Amino acid sequence: MIKLYWYFWNDLYEFKEKTFMKICVVIATYNENKEIGRLVKEIKRQNLDVLVIDDGSSDLTSEIAKESGAIVLRNEKNEGKGASLRKGFHYALNNGFDAIITMDGDGQHSPEDIPFFLRLAKHSDAGVIVGNRMQKTKSMPVVRYLTNKVMSCFLSYMVRQKIPDTQCGFRLIKNEVLKNMSFVASKYEIESEMLIKSSFLGFKIESVPIKTIYGREKSQINPFMDTLRFIRLILRELWITRY
Fold first, then answer.
1. Which pTM does this prediction carry?
2. C-alpha distance from residue 239 to each of 136, 154, 167, 190 (Å)
């Protein structure tokens, strides 16, 4: 009986230790003054730190984000999502965060889904947790759906882990992943680079279902150029791995 009580209290102690995580939500933005204020306020209501990287916006993104309670870092010129996220990763590592959550600033990611990432992170040994929009795709544009399916199948095969939505930028990355890798991508291909390098370093990747939100926002992804960047990334990673 004494042993049972000891195991119970030991498990409870370990659970409490495991559930305490210092989280920073990192949002790379470019001209998102319509959505960024609401987004930051909703995240702050969950008692989470918010870092907004303003990638050279010409509107009031920085001002609104700061007024809403976010820490703001600004690129003087537009450098790309990858460059902005790398700046966010550097900030998180230097400020003692256990994990970061990356979100888009255009309203396609709902703060209501954040608790699902946190809950899984507390009970999983996965280094990266990726949002999965592919369970409910009715509102997803056909081109985006097909692109996601093809690239997700290819990357899942490449990293030997099933990742249903490799192109989703809504994800949680633990500190031990960030501090063990360096990124070179400056555009949207950083999301694929992260999965490839995480897997090659032996980190487990899991997925969590999230809402599929698409409105009238204009995608900043250039299908032709970003596909070329993706192919170049894959070839580079295969070359590095081989040699």
1. 0.82
2. 36, 17, 22, 17
